[in-house]
């Protein structure tokens, strides 16, 4: 059974921090925005109709008095330090999960204060008296269950975490995501969306799946969420033992009392720590940060992370923690001298295989900067259109769902991809999508062309398909047709249905989709010819019938 955890959660912390920094009242409707969308909003803003994920224009239209604040992780971490200090005054072993959320082992405080309920009541009173912010406390077996319990203000009895989690919506999985890293949040959102489309609605249904099936179908990172959904430890109990020589330290001469001066030392230490971890094939999931001032004051804090840290993420946490110590505390709690020694130590490590990195998130925190400089240099020689990056867009057509923009431009979707798109091709998407659809001919068993009737039905079952004038291949299976009609109302407006169609209105579009599986064929097309990407073995095609002709819009490998 996972160890008991006591979690302190400060609701809407990004908003609370922004309001305290701007000296706004608690009743002022406030929202924090990142990438033009609501990250968090106050209770009064929610009463006005503002919701998380909403665009700025829509939020301001619903609540005209809304105060807009930009997302600032440095501010959130700095102003959260007094809350952490208040908890640490009462309970040892404090771990920061993220600004607004801290966890401590529950066993010691429960014994000291007589009960878990007594410990929860004491910490709430302490934070209210010392910091003056609202918080909720939850206690359960394991960090994930304790976080969800804190969001509901519940104390879950020992051994009952699986029963507590089972009826909760599968959307709660995103509470495991490190909200300081948008990439992780996006990955959790994609998994939740996929689970819901598969009919898995609750954490209990997700936990009932076989772990090997979860790893095969959803990937390695989904196993962490699967274990948490079942009330177990997010990671296996047997973790790697932390080697004693992994602590890295730096003497700061002269001592630093400003965060901008300490940022460089933080980056150097982070690179050294991760170089040592990389040599041993390890990655850090709990980071200890220690500092000693010129007057001998000792400062120590532990950050817990949902996924292994990168050098850049480590440097960010060190900078935020120093900012909290030097600027976030008040009065007697603030250090009386500058920091003279800074140390980092991995409190918990896992195998480096748990750290999945892509091209722009390589293990050296400088890969993204090097890639960006190289891309900019290519654009300077060949023009902005020489380097493009993909943006996921909304739409029914495959070519509408991916749009390329020049490197450095804002990667904002033109149409919201998460909106419902009736008639959209369901997952999995074709692995090959040609720049221009390949012309095709579909024949029945007697060699006659297969057409589409006015009622969107096929005139005969497909028997053979010829792609781009090449040899025809036999059809071993097919499915469809699926008709799609877009902007059908334009014709009604043009016929005088009481309104006038705009002069720039996009014309209506009507098509029919069919999926076919072609048998293996030993012949190959000439390189560069349309359809040359098709494999000689069995292959599936997405066919589209539009304006009286058949086209290959995609291929499944």
From TrEMBL:
Keyword field: DNA damage
Domain UmuC: 29-151
Pfam family, one: IMS
Origin superkingdom: Bacteria
Coiled coil, from the record: none
Family: Belongs to the DNA polymerase type-Y family.
PANTHER family reported in the protein's UniProt record: BLR3025 PROTEIN, BLR3025 PROTEIN-RELATED
Protein name, entry field: DNA polymerase Y family protein
Species the sequence originates in: Saccharopolyspora oryzae
């Amino acid at each position: 059974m996972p160890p008991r955890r006591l979690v302190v959660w400060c609701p809407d912390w990004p908003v609370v921090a922004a309001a305290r920094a701007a000296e706004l009242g608690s009743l002022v409707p406030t929202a924090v925005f990142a990438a033009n969308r609501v990250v968090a909003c106050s209770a009064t803003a929610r009463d006005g109709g503002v919701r998380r994920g909403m665009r700025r224009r829509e939020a301001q239209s619903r609540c005209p008095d809304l105060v807009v604040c930009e997302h600032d992780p440095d501010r959130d971490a700095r102003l959260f330090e007094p809350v952490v200090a208040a908890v640490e005054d009462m309970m040892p072993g404090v771990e920061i999960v993220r600004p607004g959320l801290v966890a401590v082992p529950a066993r010691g405080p429960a014994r000291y204060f007589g009960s878990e309920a007594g410990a929860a009541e004491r910490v709430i009173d302490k934070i209210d008296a010392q910091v003056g912010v609202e918080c909720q406390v939850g206690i359960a077996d394991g960090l994930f269950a304790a976080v969800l319990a804190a969001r509901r203000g519940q104390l879950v009895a020992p051994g009952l975490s699986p029963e507590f989690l089972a009826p909760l919506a599968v959307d709660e999985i995103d509470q495991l995501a490190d909200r300081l890293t948008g990439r992780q949040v996006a990955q959790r959102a994609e998994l939740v969306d996929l689970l819901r489309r598969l009919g898995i609605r609750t954490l209990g249904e997700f936990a009932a799946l076989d772990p090997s099936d979860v790893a095969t179908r959803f990937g390695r990172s989904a196993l962490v969420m699967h274990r948490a959904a079942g009330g177990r430890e997010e990671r296996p109990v047997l973790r790697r033992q932390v080697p004693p020589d992994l602590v890295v330290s730096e003497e700061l001469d002269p001592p630093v009392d400003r965060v901008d001066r300490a940022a460089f030392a933080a980056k150097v230490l982070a690179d050294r720590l991760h170089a040592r971890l990389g040599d041993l094939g390890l990655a850090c999931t709990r980071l200890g940060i220690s500092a000693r001032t010129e007057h001998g004051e000792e400062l120590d804090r532990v950050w817990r992370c949902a996924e292994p840290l990168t050098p850049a993420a480590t440097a960010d946490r060190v900078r935020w923690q120093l900012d909290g110590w030097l600027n976030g505390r008040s009065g007697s709690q603030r250090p009386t001298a500058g920091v003279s020694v800074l140390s980092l130590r991995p409190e918990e490590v896992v195998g480096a295989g748990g750290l999945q990195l892509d091209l722009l998130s390589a293990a050296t925190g400088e890969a993204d900067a090097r890639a960006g400089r190289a891309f900019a240099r290519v654009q300077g020689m060949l023009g902005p259109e020489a380097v493009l990056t993909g943006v996921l867009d909304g739409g029914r057509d495959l070519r509408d769902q991916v749009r390329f923009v020049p490197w450095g431009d804002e990667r904002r979707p033109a149409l919201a991809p998460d909106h419902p798109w009736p008639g959209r091709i369901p997952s999995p998407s074709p692995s090959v999508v040609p720049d221009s659809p390949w012309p095709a001919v579909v024949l029945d068993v007697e060699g006659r062309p297969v057409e589409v009737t006015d009622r969107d039905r096929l005139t005969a079952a497909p028997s053979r398909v010829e792609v781009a004038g090449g040899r025809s291949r036999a059809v071993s299976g097919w499915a469809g047709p699926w008709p799609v009609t877009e902007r059908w109302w334009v014709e009604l407006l043009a016929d005088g249905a009481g309104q006038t169609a705009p002069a720039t209105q996009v014309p209506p579009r009507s098509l029919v989709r069919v999926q076919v599986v072609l048998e293996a064929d030993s012949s190959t097309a000439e390189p560069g010819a349309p359809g040359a990407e098709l494999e000689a073995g069995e292959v599936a095609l997405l066919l589209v019938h539009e304006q009286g002709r058949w086209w290959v819009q995609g291929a499944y490998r």
